[in-house]
Amino acid sequence: MSGIMAAIKLREAGFHDFTIYEKADRLGGTWRENTYPGIACDVPSHLYSYSFAPNPEWSHRFSPGSEIQAYFEAVARRHGVDGRIQYRKEVTRCAFEDGRWKVEMADGTSDVGDFVIAATGVLHHPATPDIEGLDDFEGACFHSARWDHAVPLAGRRLGVIGTGSSAIQIVSALVEQVAELTLFQRTAQWIAPVENPAYSEAEKAEFRRRPEAMAQIRAQVSRAFIEGFANALADVQSPQLEAIHAACETNLETSVKDPELREKLRPNYRAACKRLIMSADFYEAIQRPNARLVTEAIARVEESGVRTRDGRLHELDVLVLATGFCVDRFVRPMQVTGRDGTRLDDIWKEGPFAYMAISVPDFPNFFMLNGPNGPVGNFSLIDVAELQFAYILQLVEQVRSGACREVSASRMAMESFEAERREAARTTIWSSGCTSWYLDAQGVPMAWPWTFDRFREEMSKPRLADFEAR
Ligand code: NA7
Q1: Atom of ligand 1 nearest to the CA of 437
Q2: If you count Cβ atoms within 10 Å of the first and of the last residue's Cβ in the chain, which end, N or C, has fewer?
Q3: Are 353 and 387 within 8 A, CB to CB?
Q4: CA-derived radius of gyration, the chain
Q5: CA 440 to CA 312: how far, in whole Å?
Q6: Contacts (Cβ under 8 Å, ≥6 apart) of 203
Q7: Cα torsion at 267, 269, 271, 277 (round to 10°)?
């Protein structure tokens, strides 16, 4: 998503000598890799679109993953950047040598560039749980991000481990197809009620005829998202978060009839502390007669199923690990070496960081899109990447204009940014008492802890005094 955007914007800015390296044989990132049944984005489609490429064809308010994938492919084609992508080129090493970046690929080839833009995504390394006996299972077992479409599901006994966004979408999509569905829940999740109406043919025709109608929806949804959610995450006391919590509570009370099941599904932390799950149909799905919610901890996996700590064996034919991702990878496992041999792996030993989520001291002319501690939980990552790219372009212009040859955040700016960020993170909703993938090893949220308005303001113009230019 961000690589395609970067290519389109680079060309617009008059840069023509660039190449996109892609490890796979197809573009699309998250939407290429995640193909599980029920996959959709939790940001409304007219907002989860490039600002420069509105799409009148979105089928639903929250359109399915396959449509999103097709959208990225179509945009890349339409803007003529698909031809700039070199596929099956996994970058294994980037090193700053003699004032330029040497980029090495797994197939032994290499390239040299003045700038590297790492558009490598956030959640792309599946986390396999450390559960005893996983390899003993005789049925089919795979991670949600590595869905095996060859495995039949109809009439079979399906187990799902995890209750994040992926698991909730999978359960809702498959419960009617399978004979039995068992959901293994370690932590209950708040579910925000959403509606997901389809756009009618008349509405789509109107969007085609009057693109400003899409722009209007985008502006409305964007404002509502920022004011009702994104800005509020920074303030645990905000009335918006209270309202979201109340809506989730009401959703649980009114949707789940059996009091015992309702209590099992009731989280013991504030809504939006973990990533808020949006679902129109999960509660309905989990109350179906063939669905079972297991809250007893998993002891181990055996040949025929999952045994819980109470000694019960839950027999299964297929086991899905909807257990999330290694969230601290970013550009890694790529080996990135900056000035004077400084290795990203070494300086990120305690956890990844970047000034404004974009630049790392001593890594000149190396910029990240959706890098560490950005607004990953706050907003549409497309908007985030576009804003970040506009910021990066201004730094690149510093070099193009001849003002300097190398630019990266200064160490002093990095330190004060990070100290301020960690301090601010204490009063965000993510610090309000739950475990989640937003937290680092010290329990500090790895996210932009201020309002989205502040992010937009910061991205509009780099504070050049915070950069070291040589
Ligand atoms: P998430 O949101 O990281 O969810 C992973 C789920 O897996 C979560 O419920 C975890 O429980 C559970 N989990 C992880 N390891 C285990 C083990 N060992 N045993 C039991 N349960 C486990 O990943 P998703 O793929 O759903 O969503 C990722 C993001 O994609 C999402 O936030 C959106 O941004 C889109 P826990 O809550 O840690 O107790």
Answers
A1: 3
A2: C
A3: no
A4: 23
A5: 34
A6: none
A7: -50
Contact 416, 219 (CB under 8 A): no
| Nearest residue to 456 (alpha-carbon basis) of 121, 234, 233, 231 | 231
Q: Whose CA is nearest to atom 31 of ligand 1?
A: 165
Specify the pairing of strand 110-113 against strand 100-105.
Answer: antiparallel
For ligand 1, is residue 378 a contact (CB within 6 Å)? Answer: no
Per the CB < 8 A criterion, the answer to whether 293 and 183 are in contact is: yes
The burial of 363, by beta-carbon neighbours within 10 Å (0-12 exposed, 13-18 middle, 19 or more buried), is given as buried
Calculate how far, in angstroms, residue 170's C-alpha sits from the geometric centre of ligand 1: 13
Distance 82 CA to ligand 1 centre (A): 33
Q: 């799905």: which residue's tokens?
A: 285
| Cβ count near 416 (within 10 Å) | 13
Judge residue 350's burial from the number of C-beta atoms within 10 Å of its C-beta, 0-12 exposed, 13-18 middle, 19 or more buried.
exposed
Task: Give the tens place of pLDDT for each residue, 27-50.
Answer: 999 999 999 999 999 999 999 999
Q: Look at residue 455 and give its three-state secondary structure.
A: helix
Question: Which mutation among 122, 172, 186 tests ligand 1's pocket best, with the greatest number of atoms within 8 A of CB?
Answer: 186
* Nearest CA, atom 30, ligand 1: 165
| Confidence at 65, pLDDT banded by 50, 70, 90 | very high
Strands laid side by side in the 110-113 sheet:
110-113, 100-105, 91-97, 335-337
30 lines ligand 1 (CB under 6 A): no
Residue 424 tokens read as: 């601010």
Q: How far apart are CA 403 and CA 288, in angstroms?
A: 65
Bridge partner list, 86: 21
Q: Is the N-terminal amide bond of 333 cis, ω within 30° of 0? A: yes
* pLDDT tens digits along 346-396: 999 999 999 999 999 999 999 999 999 999 887 899 999 999 999 999 999
Give yes or no for a contact between 134 and 292, defined as CB atoms under 8 angstroms apart.
Answer: no
The secondary structure of residue 129, as a DSSP letter, is: P
- For residue 64 and ligand 1, the question of a CB distance below 6 A is answered with no
State the Cα angle at 150 between 146 and 151, rounded to 5°.
85
